[in-house]
Amino acid sequence: MVPRAESTFPSLPALSLALLLLLSVPLAQAQAQGQKTWCVAKPSSDEATLTANLNYACSQVDCSILQRGCGCFYPDNLISHASIAMNLYYQSRGRNYWNCYFKNSALVVTTDPSFGSCVYEYI
Q1: Confidence of residue 50 (pLDDT cuts 50, 70, 90)
Q2: 73-121, pLDDT tens digit by residue?
């Protein structure tokens, strides 16, 4: 029998935990410094994911701002509507990084994504 060499690489769960902790540090620092944060959809997210995020967020928070004639209806596209709904959810749940995960299809940003008459809520 040939002895099996010990692996010098960390396990996948250990790597995942380390990555999660590293990614949460900038957000925690931003919030500790009193910096405002918002949640937006990743531009690389696919339509099915954005649709699911929009539907889920709007089942949990009031998304009436996305209705025709309201301030955030335009631009009338999926990524814009999903971002607004995801931010409403994130804000309403206390701005914790895990409330902006959406199956890894969202980003926490420190630049206000508001535009025109559409003001991204910050609670």
Answers
A1: very high
A2: 999 999 999 999 999 999 999 999 999 999 999 999 999 999 999 999 8
Mean pLDDT computed over every residue of the chain:
84
Which amino acid would we find at residue 1?
M
30: number of Cβ within 10 Å: 15
Using left for φ > 0, alpha for ψ between -120 and 50, and beta otherwise, residue 69 falls in left
For 43-72, letters b (16+ CB in 10 Å) and e give eebeeebbebbbebbbeebebebbeeeeeb
Do 88 and 121 touch, CB atoms closer than 8 A?
Answer: yes
* SS3 labels along 34-102: CCCCEEEECCCCCHHHHHHHHHHHHHHCCCHHHCCCCCCCCCCCHHHHHHHHHHHHHHHCCCCHHHHCC
Residue pair 39/121 in contact by the 8 Å Cβ criterion = no
Count of other CB atoms within 10 angstroms of residue 75:
12
